[in-house]
């Protein structure tokens, strides 16, 4: 793991580290257009799974 990846890791305790999202990930999580696209993709995948089971 290089220095670039290490800036996203913040320690909350001695033996615990957690990845925090970078600026690009935060932007995608708050973008309404991207959320709508993800919603459509997930629904299509669910329809495929349901169709296969019936």
Describe this structure in words.
The model has no long low-confidence stretch (mean pLDDT 81). It contains 3 helices and 2 strands. It has a two-stranded antiparallel sheet with strand order 1-2. The protein has a domain at 25-54. The chain has 54 residues and is of the alpha+beta class. The chain starts with a helix and ends with a helix.
Provide a compact summary of the structure.
The longest helix has 22 residues, at 32-53. The chain contains 3 helices and 2 strands; from the N terminus they run αββαα.
Low-confidence runs of at least 5 consecutive residues: none
Q: Give me the strand/helix succession.
A: HEEHH
**What's the tally of helices?**
3
What is the SS-derived class? alpha+beta
The total of beta strands comes to 2
Q: How far is it from the N-terminal to the C-terminal residue, by CA? A: 46 Å
Tell me, what's the shape?
elongated
Share of β-strand residues: 15-25%
Rg estimate, integer Å: 18 Å
Mean pLDDT: 81
* Sheet of most strands: 2 strands, antiparallel
What topology, given as strand order, has the largest sheet?
1-2
Helix content class: 55-70%
What characteristics describe this protein?
single chain; 54 residues; alpha+beta; two-stranded antiparallel sheet; 63% helix
